[in-house]
Amino acid sequence: MKVHRSSQELESALEGYKELVKMQRQEIYELKKFESENIKLKNLLQGYKKVIEDISKSGSKSNVR
After folding, report:
1. Would you place residue 62 in the very low, low, confident or very high pLDDT band (cuts 50, 70, 90)?
2. Number of alpha carbons in the 13 Å side-chain half-sphere of residue 50
3. Is 51 helix (H, G, I), strand (E, B) or coil?
């Protein structure tokens, strides 16, 4: 079992970890962007549903005579 690593091996491992962190930060950014867009679309859909319900209610009231 090798306990000691060379300076080059440690630097290489460190660079690998830095690249991994960079990639994970990018993934987190993309997921947050996706989540934000998803929330925006849900709110828009709720607004459309409310408008349709309001139109349906006012339409049914005006048809009742």
Report:
1. low
2. 6
3. helix
First to last CA, the chain: 91
Output the pTM of the full model. Answer: 0.65
- In the structure encoding, which two tokens stand for residue 29, read together? 């950014």
Domain that holds residue 7: 1-65
Separation of alpha carbons 40 and 38, rounded Å: 5
Number of domain units in the chain: 1
Structure tokens at 2: 């090798």
DSSP symbols for 5-43:
--HHHHHHHHHHHHHHHHHHHHHHHHHHHHHHHHHHHHH
The tens digit of pLDDT for each residue in 36-60 reads 999 999 999 999 999 999 999 987 7
